[in-house]
Specification:
The protein has about 450 residues and is mainly alpha-helical. It has one domain (about 15-20, about 50-430): MFS general substrate transporter like domains (Growth Hormone, Chain: A, Up-down Bundle). It is about 70% helix and about 0% strand. The longest helix has 26 residues, at about 375-400. The chain starts with a helix and ends in a 10-residue tail after the last helix.
């Protein structure tokens, strides 16, 4: 990215006052600080949390059900020949496609569909996802053959795609990256498993409720406390210069590489975990379901511990990332902090979460049944990918929080809100508030 492009981008940035109120200064805007001086920010954010967090966590718990219930249904009652795989008479290759076909439409829809959050509104778009996804999930109860199961799984991936990225994008309008960290970790705790029909009907009901309950965009006060280049409702939906700057930023490529390695190395086994546990010969199908509780419980505890360390002890999110399985949850706020502008935020969030779907595309191949029953080669491959992530996290930590003044060519390209860019320096000279803080 050349200096001239930096200057062009700089000229397009709004002033801090314009960014805060979404319009040119007026008489009401001149006493901006006085109007908000009496507001208790902690109390306000608690009210915001009560409006947004519980309902989003509840809907996210339901939306994530389909990622595990198919694998579980493939092993449940296998001794009696009544598992889903046996009832539909599916061979190993067909079952692998049942698992993987969900992730193809899911992966390719996320970068594009995230923009619809701003083109419509968060409540409308998330309602569309919930209702359409729930309707297809309920239809899975009527599946009687391989073709019907594949069709339902593909439609599920298409309709569910962009739910998580839409939530993260929506939250980037409400919270600073620092405030987002414990909330994303709490969101990752919201996972469970129930039957197809129950979850389908519940999802439709929650989706309709989403339209009436979810607040769309934050007020002036909340906007004013975020970085001036954080996503704003007044921004254009697509700004080419923001997208080009994002692709020139090395943090984009490091985050993408981390997401890919972690998806396959750490999460790849989750798509076939019931079969791996069953192949180990430790227990029958019923015991296999129970043996999935310890890793899930560990994940919940790690997320809670990471949220406490980040929020209460000011421990760096990059340090907490070294304790899987909370790595994704810890890094999402940092991913948002590495983006400037609404267009870059929508596309960047969408691309990275799309990459995470490699867990369902590559994971089943890494943990193939012919590698069992001990899966030594699979474990070696997974450990190698997680080890690579360790090095990537160190690089990201330095790029976002390290001193880049000795590397001006690199400093010009890193757009993280935690780093001072040329545009920030010029803005501070003009007396504007950067409000960057600790991301």
């Amino acid at each position: 990215m050349s200096c001239s492009s930096q200057e062009d981008y700089k000229e397009q940035l709004p002033t801090a006052l314009e960014a805060a109120v979404g319009k040119a200064p007026s008489e009401d805007a001149l006493d901006f600080e006085e109007r908000f001086a009496a507001i208790d920010r902690k109390r306000l954010m608690r009210r915001v949390d009560l409006r947004i967090i519980p309902y989003i966590c509840l809907t996210y718990m339901v939306v994530r059900l389909d990622l595990g219930n198919v694998a579980n249904s493939g092993t449940t009652n296998s001794e009696a020949g009544h598992s889903l795989k046996q009832v539909l008479s599916l061979d190993a290759k067909q079952w692998a496609w049942v698992i993987s076909c969900f992730y193809y439409p899911y992966m390719f829809s996320e970068p594009v569909c995230t923009f619809f959050v701003k083109l419509t509104s968060p409540s409308v778009w998330l309602t569309r996802i919930m209702v359409s996804w729930g309707a297809v999930m309920a239809c899975m109860a009527a599946v009687t053959n391989y073709g019907g199961l594949i069709t339902c799984r593909v439609l599920l991936g298409l309709f569910e795609g962009s739910y998580f990225t839409s939530v993260i994008y929506h939250w980037s309008f409400w919270y600073t990256p620092d405030e987002m960290a414990p909330r994303v970790l709490f969101l990752y705790v919201a996972n469970s498993s129930v039957l197809f029909i129950v979850e389908g009907l519940l999802t439709v009901t929650l989706g309709i409720g989403m339209y009436f309950i979810l607040p769309n965009w934050p007020s002036e006060y909340i906007v004013a406390h975020r970085h001036r280049n954080a996503p704003k409702t007044t921004d254009k939906t697509w700004v080419t210069s923001e997208i080009l700057l994002m692709f020139a930023d090395p943090t984009f490529w490091f985050f993408s590489l981390f997401w890919a390695c972690y998806a396959v190395g750490a999460w790849g086994i989750s798509t076939v975990l019931p079969f791996v546990v069953l192949d180990l010969g430790i227990s029958d199908s019923a015991g296999t379901q129970l043996l999935q509780i310890p890793p899930a419980t560990t994940g919940v505890l790690m997320c809670c511990l990471s949220a406490y360390l980040i929020r209460k002890r000011n421990v760096s999110a990059f340090l907490c990332t070294l304790g899987p399985p909370s790595a994704y949850a810890c890094l999402w706020p940092r991913r948002v902090a590495a983006l400037r502008g609404s267009s870059a935020a929508a596309l960047g969030i969408g691309i990275n979460n799309a990459i995470s779907q490699l867990s369902g595309l590559v994971g089943p191949s890494l943990w193939r049944s012919d590698y069992g029953p001990r899966y030594i080669n699979s474990a070696k491959g997974a450990c190698g990918l997680v080890a690579a992530d360790f090095c990537i996290v160190l690089a990201l930590w330095w790029l976002m929080e390290g001193d880049l003044t000795r590397h001006p060519w690199l400093q010009r390209r890193v757009l993280a809100q935690t780093q001072v860019s040329e545009a920030d320096v010029e803005a501070e000279k003009r007396g504007e508030t950067i409000a960057r803080g600790r991301a």
